[in-house]
Each structure stands twice: as structure tokens, then as C-alpha cells.
Write a structure and sequence with these properties.
The chain has four helices and no strands. The chain has 89 residues and is mostly helical. It has a single domain, classed as ACP-like (Non-ribosomal Peptide Synthetase Peptidyl Carrier Protein, Chain A), CATH 1.10.1200. The relative contact order is 0.23.
Length: 89
């Protein structure tokens, strides 16, 4: 399993993945509460692909039930932290 010892490490990695997956300019500040679809211009297929990359990078399985509840960077990072048993600070 991927080794992440803090929520800030998880959040940083999720931000990096979202920036890459949605082709966000690195100079642009990514708001942790930005909605993937509404604010970042993703569609539902983009979100499914993002979840697949998150699963691979963090070595986890995200159920369909949770996939439909991930709308922002913050929500994704919090879910991953919970799955990896890392406290959210």
C-alpha cells in the first residue's frame, strides 16, 4: 500500500493528480473546494478516469457508492485519508 503519513501529503498528491488529469495550468491556483464538473470543466467520464488514477496511485479501491460522492479535491483527499487510516487535520 502507498505510504502517506499525513493528510497534507495526500492532499498534495490529489492536487497534483487533478492538475494533471484536467490539464490545469501549473501556474493557476487550484482551489481545494473547486467542483470537478462545475468549476474545472470536467465531465462524468473525466471524473471516472480521475478515480481510476487515484485508485492506482494510492493503491486503493473506491466503490461506486463513494465515486458518486467525490466532487472536489478536498472530498477526494478526505476519502483517501479515511481509507488509508490517516487522520484528517
Amino acid at each position: 500500500m502507498a505510504k502517506f503519513s499525513s493528510f497534507s501529503e495526500i492532499l498534495s498528491k490529489v492536487r497534483e493528480i487533478v492538475t494533471d488529469q484536467f490539464c490545469i495550468d501549473a501556474s493557476q491556483e487550484l482551489d481545494n473546494n473547486a467542483y470537478f464538473i462545475r468549476d474545472l470543466g470536467a465531465d462524468s467520464l473525466d471524473v471516472v478516469e480521475l478515480v481510476m488514477v487515484l485508485e492506482q496511485q494510492f493503491e486503493i479501491q473506491i466503490s461506486d457508492e463513494y465515486t458518486t460522492k467525490i466532487h472536489t479535491v478536498q472530498e477526494a483527499a478526505e476519502l483517501i485519508a479515511k481509507m488509508l487510516e490517516v487522520p484528517v487535520v
